[in-house]
Write a structure and sequence with these properties.
alpha+beta; Tetrahydropterin Synthase, Chain A; 4 domains; 3-stranded antiparallel sheet; 11 strands; 54% helix; 20% strand; elongated
Length: 403
């Protein structure tokens, strides 16, 4: 004889089965466990509600097949199976406290169904599928739980401390028991327990970060104190070694040096050597870094000074070259003027052309497009038309004194 399994998943809460659809020639039996119940519905009437028993020939068998053929059995026979043991339902919510903190979490609702309330499930199965799962129950009660329990309870919390208090959890359970009684009673459920589980809020996360930073600062302070204590211990060991050596010297003088003092001295010296090696290693690394930085700085300064010196030398050479060139040009031009004056060809037009050429030559020498100011004064002219050179007292042509 085979067993009929009405519940093939742990998510199934209740199931309405039409016995006519599971008929077969092989007999089947239904085993009801202590946390399972079955209500018999025959021709629209609710019959016995059974649990912790073995139902034989309820869903088929040769006798049922013969009864259907003879017309002696009921026209409509249904079996309403349900779980009577406590079941937990997790309902996700997202709310806000009165202080403005965003709160996310889950509300745990523990429900149980009594035997006498199993027929109330027919209110649900009248307009829905014949299988009720855990997700089905959550979809039915979630909106009302959020609107009538979770949101009002969160509104009474000013901060995260109120959210974590025992008063909030107690208020949540009392509110759920009173506000959810109607909808749960219509489905046949009884509320056993209700409590919220919330994730850390933004303020709690920030406080956690602040605490972690304080702990980190405290750790750094402890490390600093440890380093100072190590230096103090090194100093104490050095002083103890000096005192030990003095004591050993005195003991040797008196002939009272013992093996224990020698052993302690060796231990102190070994400890001092270890600390000295560590300090030398750290100082060596620090000196090496400083020497590298100083070498780089000196090299940069030397290169800068070398560049500046070359620049000054190049500018000096350019100035000397320009000065020598201009002096040479001025000397040549002066001789040409004297020769022109001696031959009587030094006319105003010649002088003007000479000045223009001198100005153009200086513009070329200075490498500037700006006109060079004429530093040569315009020569004086005698009444006879002879150009008077600097230093002349008398005109050589007409003999007139020059003022």
């Amino acid at each position: 004889m085979s067993n009929y399994k009405w519940r093939d998943s742990p998510e199934i809460v209740a199931k309405l089965v039409n016995a006519d659809k599971i008929q077969s020639f092989s007999k089947q039996q239904v085993l009801l466990k202590p946390n399972e119940a079955c209500a018999m519905i025959v021709d629209g009437r609710i019959g016995d509600i059974l649990t912790e028993t073995l139902l034989k020939n309820m869903a088929g068998g040769f006798s049922r097949w013969v009864g259907d053929k003879l017309g002696v059995t009921a026209n409509d026979r249904r079996l309403l199976f349900a779980m009577t043991g406590p079941m937990d339902y997790w309902i996700k919510f997202d709310g806000q406290t009165a202080g403005g903190d965003s709160v996310k979490g889950f509300a745990n609702v523990r429900l149980k169904m009594e035997l006498e309330n199993i027929p109330k499930l027919l209110n649900y199965f009248a307009n829905n599928a014949p299988i009720m799962t855990r997700e089905t129950v959550i979809s039915i009660i979630s909106n009302e739980l959020i609107g009538r329990v979770i949101t009002p309870c969160l509104a009474t919390c000013q901060n995260s401390a109120d959210l974590r208090s025992a008063n909030f959890i107690e208020r949540f359970e009392m509110t759920a028991e009173s506000e959810m009684r109607n909808i749960l009673s219509n489905l046949g459920f009884t509320l056993l327990k209700a409590f919220p589980i919330t994730s850390p809020t933004d303020m709690e996360t920030m406080e956690k970060h602040r605490t972690a930073m304080k702990a980190k600062m405290s750790t750094e302070q402890v490390n600093t104190d440890s380093a100072l204590a190590e230096i103090a211990n090194s100093e104490a060991v050095t002083i103890a070694r000096i005192e030990m050596e003095a004591n050993i010297a005195k003991a040797r003088a008196r002939g009272q040096v013992t093996e224990q003092l020698e052993f302690e001295l060796k231990e102190l010296r070994a400890q001092e050597e270890r600390w000295s090696a560590e300090l030398k290693f750290e100082k060596g690394k620090m000196n090496l870094r400083m020497e590298e930085a100083d070498a780089k700085s000196r090299r940069a300064m030397e290169m800068f000074a070398e560049v500046q010196a070359r620049k000054q030398e190049r500018m000096k050479n350019e100035r000397d070259f320009m000065k020598d060139r201009m002096d040479s040009q001025n000397e040549i031009q002066t001789k040409i003027m004297e020769m022109a004056a001696e031959t009587g060809n030094l006319t105003p037009e010649v002088i003007q052309e000479f000045l223009k050429q001198q100005t153009a030559q200086k513009e070329v020498d200075t490498g500037s497009n700006e006109p060079v100011k004429n530093t040569v004064s315009t020569p004086k002219m005698c009444n006879c038309g002879t150009t008077i050179m600097p230093g002349w007292k008398v005109c050589p042509t007409c003999g007139v004194p020059i003022s």
